[in-house]
Fold this sequence. Notes:
single chain
Amino acid sequence: MASSLKLADPSELAGNWLATPRAAQDTDKSPLVASNECLIDFQPNQTLGAGADCFTAWLGEQAIGWFPEPDGIAITGKEGSKILFFNRQFEGLYQGTLQSGRIITLKRPTR
């Protein structure tokens, strides 16, 4: 059976994305605040450019690349395996959950 989800072309997702972490239960006690936002460059060749160190710090392992999936965006590590998945919420907004339960939103920055 064919899927109704369209696989995005990498060129549609390449470019800058704003990544913002928050606690699973968004409270004032969360140690992660808006100042922890990172601008991450999703390069056309499906590698991560500037800002990739944020994913690396949040995940505890090196984030190297990315690829589109029908329902989101996958972030890959050194071995090319998926280390984080962002579910598509709607056009230009994705959300992923770290093993710690912290949620990271990924959205296109406003111009």
